[in-house]
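Q: Joint fold for the lines below.
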Amino acid sequence: MLRYVARRILLMIPTLFVISALVYFIIDLPPGDCVTSQIDELLSRGDPDAMARADELRQMYGLNHPLWQRYLHWVSGIFRWDFGLSCQDTVPVSDLIGERLALTIVMETCTIAFIWIVSFIIGVYAATHQYKMGDYVASFIGFVGLSIPNFLLALVLLYVGKVYFGLSIGGLMDPEYIEQPMSLGKAWSVAQHLVIPVIVIGMSGTAGMIRRLRANLLDELQKQYVVTGRAKGLAPLRLLIKYPLRHAINPFVADIGGLLPEVISGSVIVSVVLSLPTTGPMLLGALKTQDVNLAATFLLFVATLTVVGMLVSDLALAALDPRIRFGASSEK
Amino acid sequence: MSSADLRYPRQTLWADYVRAGAGVLLCGAPLLALEVNPWLALILAAGFVLFALFLVRTALRHHTRYVLGPDTLCADGPAGAVVEWNRLDRLKLSYFSTKRDRSDGWMQLTLGSAGGRTLRIDSSLDGFHDVVERAADAAGQTGLTMSEATRANLRAMGIAVAGQEATA
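A: Joint structure:
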């Protein structure tokens, strides 16, 4: 196992390096730069010094240097937790992302936990109660979750919350806690506000997982070894947990790695709709204004979380069932 | 039955040396040469320790030869150990795969005899099948109880174990 972990971590380093380079260069590809929109604003106001100001800003942000030099400067700063200046507010990127990144990690972690727990329970129930009322309800929830876009669900909940319950669903904390240091009250407020975004973002992922787990478990339950187990008098729950569930859960665990980028990208529009102070809306703004340092930093974090998530899911997959499956190659 | 000398393949060991060396260098160099944020330094230090451990383990494997005899399995090297077949009290054969279809994996054999150190052998060892076969034979003779996963893996390798009837 040590050999495998070492090999994977060694692969992660060049992978992240290539991703960071690709992201940085692609964000910079469209014509213009982050100063262009600011200058357009100055020109529209008839500022005579607009062009001089543009040169000043370009020098400040290092935009007068070639792209590869800017990239190397940005990438070398990562070790010092210095991601350069953001064009939007002319403040260091590290100052901008601090709390937003923490809130995003909390929200995404809760969403993934929600997806796993809910889909595991419903998926197993639906498979073991095939063609019964519970199975139909689970399938209905699955189809609804898959077919309704997250942002639409967010809009509906915003409307219902406001009109029928007088609740303000937007945001991730009560207004009095914004810009305040972390406290027990703030943590409680965040926990209360997390419920709706977690359900909204997790809905489609949960629906997909329920259907996958149900299908896998149904395949396993129809195999001969399960029939043999039943015939030998094994208790139904023991039989389910010890054999078919272990096999059926393999693709479920393998999906953990893929779930993370799915949840993060899916949460961007929801965060805009629900006014959540997470990285999503800021990333969207950074991409629109070609704020390369800010956007590339966010995307590098997403890439890092994804490759770490993939490693964790692969390790969990290896540890889950230390048996050869007949038909697969046995030794290497 | 005569003794057999078994070793990890040279090619595998050198590939591991290269990996471990590259990892130590990639994690250690920024720590020594650059000003690093304390949290990132912690991550890099953890990576450095992991690759250093991997390097040590590769070196141990390089300098260890396994002698498979009729009475014992002897790991002759810096971290040597002896497993006496007639006193075998630990046998675990695990298969690890990181793919959904459980293909392309590797096996690990854990062996131990009363009072002795535990031996762990990977399936990349030359003659791994012979060791597993001998261990299964010894387990059958001593009446050692094995886990369901170990029994399934032995069956998959075509090795029968006396007195270990498979359950569903």
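Q: Anything notable?
A: Chain B has a mean pLDDT of 84. The beta strands of chain B are 4-6, 65-68, 72-76, 81-84, 88-96, 106-113, 119-122.
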